[in-house]
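Structure record:
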Amino acid sequence: MSEHKATIKWARNGADFGYKNYSRDHIWRFDSGVETPASAAPAYLGNPQRVDPEAAFVAALSSCHMLTFLALASNKGFVVDSYQDNAVGRLEKNANGKLALTHIELRPRIICSGDKQPTQADLEWLHDKAHRECFIANSVTTEVKVIPVE
Protein backbone atom coordinates (compact mmCIF):
# COMPACT_ATOMS: atom_id res chain seq x y z
CA MET A 1 0.00 0.00 0.00
CA SER A 2 1.04 3.60 -0.38
CA GLU A 3 0.20 7.01 1.01
CA HIS A 4 -0.47 10.08 -1.10
CA LYS A 5 -0.22 13.48 0.56
CA ALA A 6 -1.06 17.03 -0.34
CA THR A 7 -0.71 20.25 1.61
CA ILE A 8 -3.31 22.91 0.93
CA LYS A 9 -2.32 26.45 1.94
CA TRP A 10 -4.51 29.56 2.03
CA ALA A 11 -4.12 32.87 3.86
CA ARG A 12 -6.41 35.88 4.15
CA ASN A 13 -3.44 38.28 3.97
CA GLY A 14 -5.36 41.08 5.65
CA ALA A 15 -8.15 41.26 3.07
CA ASP A 16 -11.79 41.75 4.04
CA PHE A 17 -13.40 38.41 4.87
CA GLY A 18 -16.83 39.22 3.44
CA TYR A 19 -18.18 36.32 1.37
CA LYS A 20 -17.85 38.15 -1.95
CA ASN A 21 -14.48 39.68 -1.09
CA TYR A 22 -12.07 37.09 0.26
CA SER A 23 -9.70 35.38 -2.15
CA ARG A 24 -10.36 31.79 -3.06
CA ASP A 25 -6.77 31.45 -4.34
CA HIS A 26 -4.66 28.84 -2.60
CA ILE A 27 -1.80 26.45 -3.30
CA TRP A 28 -1.73 22.66 -3.56
CA ARG A 29 1.71 21.38 -2.58
CA PHE A 30 2.62 17.74 -3.17
CA ASP A 31 5.40 15.65 -1.62
CA SER A 32 7.27 15.78 -4.93
CA GLY A 33 7.67 19.53 -4.46
CA VAL A 34 5.21 20.37 -7.22
CA GLU A 35 2.94 23.29 -6.43
CA THR A 36 -0.32 23.94 -8.25
CA PRO A 37 -2.14 27.27 -8.03
CA ALA A 38 -5.75 26.51 -7.18
CA SER A 39 -8.96 28.41 -6.55
CA ALA A 40 -12.70 27.93 -6.52
CA ALA A 41 -14.48 27.54 -9.84
CA PRO A 42 -15.28 30.93 -11.41
CA ALA A 43 -18.99 30.33 -10.74
CA TYR A 44 -18.10 30.36 -7.03
CA LEU A 45 -16.00 33.53 -7.15
CA GLY A 46 -12.77 31.73 -7.98
CA ASN A 47 -9.89 32.70 -10.19
CA PRO A 48 -10.29 31.33 -13.75
CA GLN A 49 -6.47 31.33 -14.11
CA ARG A 50 -6.18 28.56 -11.50
CA VAL A 51 -7.29 24.95 -11.21
CA ASP A 52 -10.51 24.36 -9.29
CA PRO A 53 -11.17 21.20 -7.24
CA GLU A 54 -13.96 20.00 -9.51
CA ALA A 55 -11.79 20.19 -12.64
CA ALA A 56 -8.95 18.53 -10.72
CA PHE A 57 -11.28 15.69 -9.74
CA VAL A 58 -12.26 15.15 -13.38
CA ALA A 59 -8.59 15.31 -14.41
CA ALA A 60 -7.56 12.83 -11.69
CA LEU A 61 -10.20 10.34 -12.80
CA SER A 62 -9.29 10.75 -16.47
CA SER A 63 -5.57 10.46 -15.73
CA CYS A 64 -6.06 7.31 -13.64
CA HIS A 65 -8.21 5.72 -16.35
CA MET A 66 -5.60 6.57 -19.00
CA LEU A 67 -2.68 5.21 -16.97
CA THR A 68 -4.57 1.98 -16.29
CA PHE A 69 -5.60 1.71 -19.96
CA LEU A 70 -1.97 2.19 -21.10
CA ALA A 71 -0.72 -0.51 -18.72
CA LEU A 72 -3.37 -2.96 -19.92
CA ALA A 73 -2.78 -2.14 -23.61
CA SER A 74 0.98 -2.60 -23.18
CA ASN A 75 0.46 -5.94 -21.45
CA LYS A 76 -1.74 -7.06 -24.37
CA GLY A 77 0.94 -6.17 -26.90
CA PHE A 78 -0.73 -3.07 -28.36
CA VAL A 79 1.37 0.01 -29.12
CA VAL A 80 -0.40 3.22 -28.11
CA ASP A 81 1.08 6.30 -29.79
CA SER A 82 -1.22 8.89 -28.28
CA TYR A 83 -4.13 9.20 -25.90
CA GLN A 84 -6.16 12.38 -25.51
CA ASP A 85 -9.22 12.69 -23.33
CA ASN A 86 -11.54 15.69 -23.32
CA ALA A 87 -13.26 14.67 -20.09
CA VAL A 88 -16.34 16.49 -18.81
CA GLY A 89 -17.80 16.44 -15.30
CA ARG A 90 -21.30 17.64 -14.48
CA LEU A 91 -21.89 19.46 -11.21
CA GLU A 92 -25.56 19.14 -10.31
CA LYS A 93 -27.77 18.18 -7.41
CA ASN A 94 -27.53 14.56 -6.33
CA ALA A 95 -30.32 12.39 -4.89
CA ASN A 96 -29.92 14.17 -1.52
CA GLY A 97 -30.28 17.59 -3.13
CA LYS A 98 -26.59 18.41 -2.61
CA LEU A 99 -24.28 19.71 -5.34
CA ALA A 100 -21.97 16.95 -6.53
CA LEU A 101 -20.10 15.82 -9.59
CA THR A 102 -22.78 13.30 -10.47
CA HIS A 103 -21.61 12.32 -13.96
CA ILE A 104 -18.22 12.26 -15.60
CA GLU A 105 -17.76 11.44 -19.25
CA LEU A 106 -14.36 10.32 -20.44
CA ARG A 107 -13.94 10.90 -24.17
CA PRO A 108 -10.62 9.29 -25.09
CA ARG A 109 -9.16 9.45 -28.57
CA ILE A 110 -6.50 6.78 -28.92
CA ILE A 111 -4.05 6.22 -31.76
CA CYS A 112 -2.19 2.91 -32.02
CA SER A 113 0.50 1.72 -34.37
CA GLY A 114 2.25 -1.54 -35.11
CA ASP A 115 1.19 -4.85 -36.55
CA LYS A 116 -1.17 -5.73 -33.71
CA GLN A 117 -4.09 -3.30 -33.87
CA PRO A 118 -6.84 -3.41 -31.24
CA THR A 119 -10.29 -4.31 -32.51
CA GLN A 120 -13.39 -2.50 -31.30
CA ALA A 121 -13.96 -5.41 -28.91
CA ASP A 122 -10.39 -5.07 -27.62
CA LEU A 123 -10.87 -1.36 -26.98
CA GLU A 124 -14.16 -1.96 -25.18
CA TRP A 125 -12.50 -4.62 -23.01
CA LEU A 126 -9.54 -2.32 -22.28
CA HIS A 127 -11.79 0.58 -21.27
CA ASP A 128 -14.06 -1.62 -19.16
CA LYS A 129 -11.11 -3.23 -17.39
CA ALA A 130 -9.36 0.14 -16.98
CA HIS A 131 -12.48 1.56 -15.33
CA ARG A 132 -12.81 -1.43 -13.00
CA GLU A 133 -9.11 -1.27 -12.05
CA CYS A 134 -8.66 2.52 -11.81
CA PHE A 135 -7.88 3.48 -8.21
CA ILE A 136 -9.75 6.76 -8.44
CA ALA A 137 -12.85 5.23 -10.06
CA ASN A 138 -12.90 2.65 -7.27
CA SER A 139 -12.85 5.50 -4.74
CA VAL A 140 -15.92 7.45 -5.88
CA THR A 141 -19.66 7.01 -6.33
CA THR A 142 -19.91 9.33 -9.34
CA GLU A 143 -21.28 7.75 -12.49
CA VAL A 144 -18.48 7.46 -15.04
CA LYS A 145 -19.09 6.82 -18.74
CA VAL A 146 -16.37 6.11 -21.26
CA ILE A 147 -17.28 7.31 -24.74
CA PRO A 148 -14.31 6.56 -27.02
CA VAL A 149 -13.81 9.05 -29.83
CA GLU A 150 -12.67 7.72 -33.16
